[in-house]
Design a protein that fits this description.
- By secondary structure, this protein is of the alpha+beta class.
- The chain has a domain at 2-88 and 106-116 and 166-217 and 233-243 and 300-314.
- It contains twelve helices and 13 strands.
- The chain has helices spanning 7-18, 22-38, 40-51, 54-57, 189-192, 195-204, 208-211, 233-242, 246-262, 268-276, 282-292, 315-326, and strands at residues 2-3, 68-73, 78-84, 105-113, 117-122, 128-129, 134-135, 139-145, 150-153, 159-161, 168-176, 219-224, 227-232.
- The chain has a six-stranded antiparallel sheet with strand order 1-2-3-11-4-9. Strands 8-5-10 form a three-stranded antiparallel sheet, with no helix packed on it. Strands 6-7 form a two-stranded antiparallel sheet.
- A hairpin with a 2-residue loop joins strand 12 and strand 13 (227-232).
- Helix 1 (7-18) runs antiparallel to helix 2, helix 9 packs parallel to helix 11 and helix 10 runs antiparallel to helix 11 (282-292).
- The protein starts with a strand and ends with a helix.
Length: 327
């Protein structure tokens, strides 16, 4: 469990405790998210909460992850600052990932800085044939998640994010779509040790949705040869989960400091003290010092290619595949 103990975080926790309907909880929490995004004091607390934790500083990042600063992960809800990387050579309408959903999780997103990014949200009733591996998808909503924009993505709702022109940071609130007595078991250290066999048993008895865990096979979707096709998540994410190392750590830590620059973070005294500690990993020392002396810090960039046939998922090809379904 992670929890930044702050009056604003406590407001979200109180709303979660008081409101059983999870969509109503997300709606009620919107005002608190706006307060969080507007508060330099809150951001400073989040920075110190993360950088005071050895497990965060020593984390080995992978390309599967999004650079982030944690606010809470309680079992009832998660909150983070998420930093989306710009493309190395920007081209409008290039998807940063496959079309995907978040299983049984609701997601409220508030863009707090940057150029924003375009999003498609699809109808949830797309007919998926796992034997053929194809699906019918129809765009329900098309919008730009720009600074100050608040959106809710429903559970099981397919959507796709197109890479931003500039680094874009969002404040995110996640929660299961229903309160379940099993939610807090995710953080039980004893049960975590038996995670794989427990998941196998839950799937074997067909209890995955009741228990609030992902299906045994979860798919991502993309356009290929004029239609939508599926790729199993394990296969899709395998290359990015395996991509780790000092270079990626450096890119992600640098990106977090680029986000702090964009937010005009002022507590250089704290960062200077962090850089002087013997226990601080070298990569964090390096970028904390650069921040303190006001060096130019630019975010890392993302590739246009993802792990699908053809490598690139374009907005225009998604629309053409949809047009083929509608006609």
């Amino acid at each position: 469990m992670m929890y930044f103990d702050h009056p604003l975080t406590n407001k979200v926790q109180a709303l979660s405790d008081q409101i059983d309907d999870r969509k109503e909880f997300h709606s009620a929490a919107e005002g608190v998210l706006l307060e969080m995004a507007a508060s330099p004091e809150f951001l400073d607390g989040v920075v110190q909460y993360n950088l005071d934790r050895p497990e965060f500083l020593e984390h080995n990042w992978s390309l599967y992850e999004i650079p982030c600063l944690w606010i809470a992960d309680t079992g009832d809800f998660q909150m983070k600052f998420h930093v989306f990387l710009p493309m190395e050579k920007f081209e409008a309408g290039i998807a940063g990932s496959c079309i995907h959903h978040h299983n049984n999780y609701l997601l409220t997103t508030l863009a707090v800085c940057g150029s924003g990014y375009e999003t498609f949200i699809f109808e949830k009733d797309g007919q998926f044939d796992p034997d053929k591996g194809d699906i019918e998808l129809r765009v329900r909503e098309n919008f730009v998640q720009k600074e100050g924009t608040m959106t809710l993505v429903d559970s099981w709702e397919p959507h796709v994010v197109f890479s931003p022109k500039e680094m874009t940071t969002t404040l995110t609130l996640w929660s299961p779509d229903a309160k379940r007595s099993t939610d807090k078991l995710r953080h039980n250290p004893v049960l975590k040790a038996f995670k794989k066999p427990l998941r196998f048993m839950i799937h074997a008895f067909g209890m995955d949705k009741k228990m609030g865990i992902a299906s045994a096979k979860t798919y991502q979707f993309y356009e290929h040869d004029g239609k939508f096709e599926a790729i199993e998540e394990g296969e899709y994410f395998a290359p990015t989960k395996a991509a780790k190392g000092p270079e990626i750590d450096d890119d992600y830590v640098r990106t977090i400091f680029a986000f702090l620059k964009a937010m005009n973070y002022q507590n250089t005294e704290y960062l200077g003290e962090l850089a002087e500690k013997d226990s601080t990993p070298a990569v964090w020392k390096k970028w904390a010092l650069k921040y303190v002396v006001r060096d130019l810090i630019l975010p890392a960039t993302s590739s246009a290619e993802i792990n699908i046939p053809g490598k690139i998922l374009r907005k225009e090809s998604i629309l053409k595949a949809q047009e083929a379904i509608l006609t």
